[in-house]
What we know:
Nuclear Transport Factor 2, Chain: A
Amino acid sequence: MFQIQTLFVTTLAAAVLAAPPxxxxxxxxxxxxxxxxxxxxxxxxxxRMERSLHPELAKRIVWADASGQNTLGQMSAMTLVQRTREGxxxxxxxxxxxxxxLDVFENTAMVKVVATDWVDYLQExxxxxxxxxxxxxxxxKPEAKARRAAAVKK
Length: 154
């Protein structure tokens, strides 16, 4: 009887150790990646920002130029980390950081981050066992657009 119990416990332990991460732990990791991104920005913590990003990240926004024609603004992971290091995000005093996981399928996730002046749509991928942000498409909130337009006119 002792051998059967030992075999059962050993088999159970091996199955638990070999099991893929649970959906809840993936959800926690996905959310933490988004928080590392936005909180890293607000705190000027370049290491935390870099930890959240895939090195080939592309962050994009559609801008309208003075003639009303659209242009695509783009930042790389390196640019985003450098701007974080410079402390650009420390100027945001309200620090809104609402994170919503919109969808998860296998090793991909879509996450919405509502920040103080903008909304980011993050595409995360599980990369070597860690969730990383691969793409960001973002848009300024209307009041932030108005402030930007007023600053450009000056």
